[in-house]
Design brief:
Elements (H helix, E strand, L loop, with lengths): L2 E8 L6 E8 L10 E6 L10 H8 L3 E6 L22 H19 L5 E6 L1 H13 L5 E5 L6 H18 L6 H8 L20 H9 L9 H15 L1 H4 L8 E6 L9 H10 L6 E6 L12 H16 L2
Parallel strand pairs: 3-4, 3-5, 5-6, 6-7, 7-8
Antiparallel strand pairs: 1-2, 2-4
Protein name: Lysophospholipase
Pfam families: Hydrolase_4
InterPro entries: AB_hydrolase_fold (IPR029058), Hydrolase_4 (IPR022742), MAG_DAG_Lipase (IPR051044)
């Protein structure tokens, strides 16, 4: 039987208790875990939304672990902290906490292969992580990412900085939210809800739309942190810091607006191609943003599992 455990650690902000969830394989089937898979979740969600994927991997011998990022899920002091990262250097906080979790888990499972997967905003956390801490990993899976034009990201950062000066770091701007997400449904016929772009699975979309932890507005601080991450991971000098021998799997849906329907994903892939020796790209037809919640999610799970096992056998 899979064991699901919860724990916590103190964030790099030195005040927030970071919520951690771990899925462990059946000890009667596995004397020791096959590997560890750490997950970085996306924006305006929480780690427990990956329960199905985590159980799939745990059933195959993996220890799966992830934390609620600062400003998400249970990693808040009060509800006012939802969508808020950290007063200073918000762009580095999430990767720092993710690395702290890696260090803790490696102490529990020394010598076990260690993989990191990140989705959406978590893909940018992951891409920052491998610039700073790539030496910790045996492989990385980047899901639902993008490579937005630098002028557009910089303009968004300037807007967030201006709003911050006028309204403060904790202000929740509907204008910035509309600019970020307002056109994401534009290619979908017969739109039902504002979040149809997430997945074709209507039950998942409805559950997302009904949740307190999936419907809050981001603070200006959160947007600043996200923009800083996006700008950080695209700089050639930071990409050069990634270990050349770190294998990467990049996967996305061809109907995902975050990846510009494949175009942005190709640009992200090309930014690493030539530096990382082993990088694979998979694009899934008809799939939207949340691959692990898509109608064909089992296919996605199998792809990730197969890729990891293939690289462990090399």
């Amino acid at each position: 039987m899979i064991k699901k455990k919860s724990n916590s650690f103190l964030s790099c902000d030195r005040k927030t208790s970071v919520n951690v969830v771990m899925w462990c394989p059946d000890e009667t089937e596995y004397d020791e875990p096959v590997a560890v898979l750490q997950i970085c979740h996306g924006m305006i969600e929480y780690i427990d939304r990956y329960d199905g994927f985590a159980r799939y991997m745990a059933e195959r011998g993996f220890v799966v672990v992830g934390n609620d990022h600062l400003g998400h899920g249970k990693s808040v002091c009060t509800d006012d902290d939802l969508g808020f990262f950290k007063d200073k250097n918000p762009g580095e906080a999430l990767a720092k906490d993710a690395h702290h979790l890696t260090v803790l888990i490696k102490k529990m499972y020394p010598g076990i292969p260690y993989y990191l997967a990140g989705h959406s905003m978590g893909s940018f956390v992951t891409r920052r992580y491998i610039c700073d801490y790539g030496y910790e990993l045996d492989g990385v899976i980047v899901m639902g990412t993008g490579h937005q034009p630098a002028p557009m990201v910089f303009a968004g950062k300037v807007l967030a900085d201006v709003v911050r000066l006028i309204k403060g770091d904790r202000y929740r701007s509907r204008l910035i939210s509309k600019i970020m997400f307002g056109n994401y449904n534009k290619r979908i016929k017969n739109v039902r809800t504002v979040n149809d772009w997430l997945t074709r699975d209507e039950a998942v979309v409805d559950e997302y739309n009904a949740g307190k932890l999936t419907t809050f507005l981001f603070t200006v601080n959160g947007y600043r942190g996200l923009m800083n991450m996006i700008l950080y991971v695209r700089k050639p000098r930071n990409i050069e810091r990634i270990p050349k021998n770190l294998p990467m799997l990049m996967i996305s849906g061809l109907d995902d607006p975050v990846g510009e329907y494949g175009k942005g994903v190709y640009r992200a892939y090309n930014s690493y191609h030539g530096h990382i020796d082993d990088i694979d790209l998979r694009l899934y037809e008809d799939c939207r943003h949340e691959l692990c919640n898509e109608l064909n999610k089992e296919e996605i799970y199998e792809e990730i599992y197969g890729w990891i096992m293939n690289h462990m056998s090399k």
